[in-house]
Fold this protein.
Amino acid sequence: MAAAQFPAVTVEPFGDSAVMVTVPHPDPVVRRTAIVDFRERFLAHRPPGMVDVVSGLESLLVEYDPLATAPQHVEYAIRLLAGRMPAEQRSARARTALRFAIPVVFDEETGPDLRSVAEEVGLAPAEVVDAIAESTFTISLLGAAMAPMMDGLQVPRPVRRRAEPRTDVAPGAIMIAGTNAIIQPFPGPTGWRVVGRTPHTIVDISRPDPVSFGTGDIVRFVPVTRDEAAALDAGFLTPEEVRV
Amino acid sequence: MRTVGLDITGTGWVTTFQDLGRRDTERRGVPTGGAADQHSAAVANVLVGNPRDATLIENLGGELAFVPDADVLVAVTGAPARVTVGGAPMASWSPVVVPAGQEVRVRGDMGLGARNYLAVGGALAAETLLGSAAPDARMGFTQSLGQRVQLESGFRGFGHSHFTPPLFRLPVPVLRCAEGPWFVDVVESYGARSIPGVRELIAESSYVVTARSNHVGLRLDGPVLHPDTDTEIVSHGVPVGALQIPHADELIVLGRYRSLTAGYPIVGVASRASLPLLGQAGPGRELRFRWVDRETSVRQSAERESEVRALELATAEAFGALGFTGHLISP
């Protein structure tokens, strides 16, 4: 991606101690890729007074301590970092991307929305499973409770959310919406379409680091049968060997 | 330094370990969480010589009771509460020496505020998740107390019981939980511009906290307006205290356990100085909103901070005069 694709960022105050950063661009793919790049850069060169950032799909909420810095300083730092995004530095990320091959059982019980998704996008349920298995996902952010939210679903058209959210989705559920996929780490409600389930533990709060993945990591879903999943003795999700 | 045990003889509706929340975890999908009323939690810790962000106990509803097996220094803050030591009334918002074997009881006045904070001089032994003892229900990290709580404490007592007049006259910034409506300052945000008239409506209306409220947000009954357009709003982060208008006719004030939000306009964000009071607002509480500019909001926040700082200096001096140097516990 050329530096010209970062024409400018929009920085808008949000309350008395945060600003919202977005990348105005007609193409959502550019908006989303650019904000991920910006976040990496921002975290690597964190200006003083920053408290935390919250990643949205197309935005970054930057939270600061208003008694330690001022919104003008925050905005200045953000524009400085956004304006200086030479392409050669873009690969110099804080960490090397890890690769995950995640076994998933896709059947009527684990994927109650498979059939309706198939009808919606004009495929057979088995073809939807194939499409998911052939897609290469990139983790774009960690959502609620560290759930990995990924981009890269290759289907004929974006998948809608459910009109009525499900109230109790099992941990390990693979869910899709738009061109995104996410894995449910804990039981809970969701408006995403549930298409399968992995036997792996995605988030383990007894570990010092409860997840093994981070933004920028690469994920593939590997269809397995229920018996194969049981035989895996799948525990905490870990990456494949890192390929240099 | 010695290990002290607190036998928990009674818990309220929700009694947990707590602190000021997680740092630098929101970028990984874990909300900061922590005490809903950060001011009261910080002051409770300062009053017993702890760092502001030390682990303490938060109680919501009912009665919290415990018996220490050694003399301990405690402070109770938050909602107006009836606090007793061995049956005798004890002051809130003040350091109090509790002798070994005496039972402390804390019963908050739910009509005036939702939460009480109990700090004990020393380091409470509690599990942590990503560096904080704050519970996170979504991740199954509940942090309930169990029957016995342990404390590492350097407190050696200073021969001043709860029966005698207060030893200290400290400049304590007490959170005022008054009768009648509470006033919350709000800084306008983008959603207010997309809904003509909403600013005026919110300023002149009265809102009541409903029982559907929780740690994610306060849900308020009261008049709202919805945007005309159907512009798609994709998932984005929101500050704590954001005022959101969902599709239903209600107003939501998001709390410290909020997650990403999508599709709903945010009309404003409560000022940092108003957040502690919002953390005390229970069902039935009437809230009124006042629009303020960002500078006013930050100035109020700075005033609050200087009050807590003044208390820190005063307690350091008082405890120093009693032979303690600095904090009672090592950080």
Q: What stands out?
A: The two ends of chain B are 13 Å apart (CA to CA). Chain B has a mean pLDDT of 92. Helices of chain B lie at 38-47, 190-194, 198-204, 275-280, 294-321.
